[in-house]
Amino acid sequence: xxxxxxxxxxxxxxxxxxxxxxxxxxxxxxxxxxxxxxxxxxxxxxxxxxxxxxxxxxxxxxxxxxxxxxxxxxxxxxxxxxxxxxxxxxxxxxxxxxxxxxxxxxxxxxxxxxxxxxxxxxxxxxxxxxxxxxxxxxxxxxxxxxxxxxxxxxxxxxxxxxxxxxxxxxxxxxxxxxxxxxxxxxxxxxxxxxxxxxxxxxxxxxxxxxxxxxxxxxxxxxxxxxxxxxxxxxxxxxxxxxxxxxxxxxxxxxxxxxxxxxxxxxxxxxxxxxxxxxxxxxxxxxxxxxxxxxxxxxxxxxxxxxxxxxxxxxxxxxxxxxxxxxxxxxxxxxxxxxxxxxxxxxxxxxxxxxxxxxxxxxxxxxxxxxxxxxxxxxxxxxxxxxxxxxxxxxxxxxxxxxxxxx
Length: 406
Known about the structure:
This protein is α+β, with helices and mostly antiparallel strands and 406 residues long. The chain has three domains: 1-135, no CATH class; 143-220, Phosphorylase Kinase, domain 1, CATH 3.30.200; 225-401, Alpha-Beta Complex (Aminoglycoside 3'-phosphotransferase, Chain: A, domain 2). It has eleven helices and 16 strands. The protein has helices spanning 120-126, 143-148, 179-190, 232-246, 254-257, 261-269, 282-291, 330-344, 350-355, 358-380, 385-402; strands spanning 10-11, 17-23, 38-39, 50-56, 62-65, 68-71, 105-106, 156-157, 166-168, 171-175, 216-220, 225-226, 300-303, 310-313, 316-320, 325-328. Strands 1-2-4-3 form a four-stranded antiparallel sheet, with no helix packed on it. Strands 8-9-10-11 form a four-stranded antiparallel sheet, covered by helices on one side. Helix 4 runs antiparallel to helix 8 (330-344), helix 7 packs parallel to helix 11 and helix 10 runs antiparallel to helix 11 (385-402). The chain is globular. The two termini are 40 Å apart.
């Protein structure tokens, strides 16, 4: 429903439920069926007044998608059905065939009343580490989790990122999507030797020695403000220092088991999976595929989403946060930064030659653009036209530098 989101979610006393929406009469109905975790019915037609919808904040998460909001990012990984009018075009909300996990969707405006496709909702989609934002009032870490890590209330939510992190004293506590990956990542980061070019928040162990407790992890809080605009050189330098520290870490088997949209799009970018079918991006994906030539640089463990995850603080080395592991060349991680800069941060085209010189650099940039565009196509099916315009403009820059014409 296009006008169904209040400025903030309203908590319901005595429980975990969050009041998501109250649809006024004569509002335009786009997806009105009930969703899993919801108490209350959907709208039958645009003249029907819909009561406040209550959503269990521990079952359904809100994910920004272009043109709407998705419900159903289930922490336990259940497969969710689509809803009528949803971007996955599943007609029956109880038909699970062909539906990606966590695909129950409720279309509407974002929490600030602006169209998602003109706001930060799209940023939440394109970033692998920004997969979900909790509904309205977020679920705080349980007291038992805090105690296990030697922390105590009060806690306060932190802005940015996935919107699920809380500060408790000098620590940050957040839920994990995969206990296996979170535990492995914590061990990798805890084992990094001291380096002059970057810092990482030190993962905290519980009193029993665990890095994950009841689905939550904790790490030290480090001050910093994210770039990246105007700090491209420092961001790239921090990424290179971080990747030098990772160069001896062996490839983890869990990378091959990941099946989220970002992992799927990464395989597409490297020719390990076919291009996704899209209602309007097939031609552009094909052009980019033609530009994604051979790459000879060796692969290693990298952070695949550095752009918004390097924090800067005067007088201190940059802080690398929200580790998103991939097994690709270091220059590919930098190509993703360049792609993001050109697409979303008004970076100058000269950034291409500065960071990604030569023909192989263009091949890597093409793969990074496929990664971002394929992610959108996998999630949405139809990519918003303004996004296609962005991608077409950057694709043209790559074509010009590669001496190609279409």
